[in-house]
Amino acid sequence: MADTAQVNVHEAKTQLSRLLKRVEQGEEITISRAGQPVARLVPLRASRPERKLGLWKGRVWIADDFDETSEDLIAAFEGE
């Protein structure tokens, strides 16, 4: 779990760069107004690389009878 600190709005406005450095190091910062939490600064999660379609084209095949299930197999699953 990340460390959490609480700062007031004035401190957040005057020390935003320092707070962002702390967030980059994994800390979460709660911003409060009149002692009541109103927002959180949290580190962004790294985005996933874009998926490329078709990388396995020609390397994988599906049998023609893939969707067919024999009665014996169904009976075995049903405990018969």
Features:
3 helices, alpha+beta, YefM-like fold, 3 strands, elongated, 80 residues, three-stranded mixed β-sheet
Measured distance between first and last alpha carbons = 49 Å
- Which structural class matches the secondary elements? alpha+beta
Shape: elongated
The CATH architecture of the domain at 4-41 comes to 3-Layer(aba) Sandwich
Count of DSSP-assigned helices: 3
CATH C-level class of the domain at 4-41: Alpha Beta
CATH superfamily of the domain at 4-41: YefM-like domain
Explained architecture:
The chain has 80 residues and is α+β, with helices and mostly antiparallel strands. It has a domain of 38 residues: 3-Layer(aba) Sandwich (YefM-like fold), CATH 3.40.1620. It is 28% helix and 21% strand. The chain contains three helices and three strands. The chain has a three-stranded mixed sheet with strand order 1-2-3. Strand 2 and strand 3 form a beta hairpin. The chain is elongated, with a radius of gyration of 27 Å. The relative contact order is 0.14.
How is this fold's topology laid out?
Layout: E1 4-8, H1 9-14, H2 16-24, E2 28-33, E3 36-41, H3 71-77
Parallel strand pairs: 1-2
Antiparallel strand pairs: 2-3
Task: Give the structure's gist in a few sentences.
It is built from 3 helices and 3 strands. It has 80 residues and is α+β, with helices and mostly antiparallel strands.
